[in-house]
Write a structure and sequence with these properties.
Blueprint: E1 3-7, E2 10-13, E3 18-25, E4 36-41, E5 47-53, E6 60-62, E7 70-75, E8 80-85, E9 94-100, E10 104-105, E11 109-114
Parallel strand pairs: 2-11
Antiparallel strand pairs: 1-3, 3-8, 4-5, 4-9, 5-6, 7-8, 9-10, 9-11
Length: 115
């Protein structure tokens, strides 16, 4: 059983930064065995993969829309994955979700960026 809980959302102005955290818990699995993903869904739009990080944190990949501004990292001791978002733009406004193994999703964290 996997449980994911996001935190750190909020409202900021264009150009500012936010950091989202996703805490993983549960039994029967190990956090450091699995890649972790961040998705987002903007109002009226399809869900978009923001990026992911491999289990050992050796590899990260990002959507072109966030490349160079967002950074995904993880702490395999704390069982947490992070999304550092810099130089935020109004088009980054969305609900952000972390996703893990067994098709598990967090509850989402709202990010609002005003111009």
């Amino acid at each position: 059983q996997v449980k994911l809980v996001e935190s750190g959302g909020g409202s900021v102005q264009s150009g500012e930064s936010l950091k989202l955290s996703c805490a993983a818990s549960g039994s029967g699995w190990r956090f450091d065995w699995y890649a972790m993903n961040w998705y987002r869904r903007a109002p009226g739009q399809e869900r978009e993969l923001v990026g992911y990080i491999y289990d050992t944190a050796s590899t990260t990949q990002y959507a072109d829309s966030v490349k160079g501004r967002f950074t995904i990292s993880r702490d395999n001791v704390k069982n947490e994955v992070y999304l550092q978002m810099d130089d935020l733009k109004p088009e980054d406004t969305a609900v952000y979700y972390c996703a893990g193994p067994f098709e598990t999703w967090g509850q989402g964290a709202q990010v609002c960026v005003s111009s």
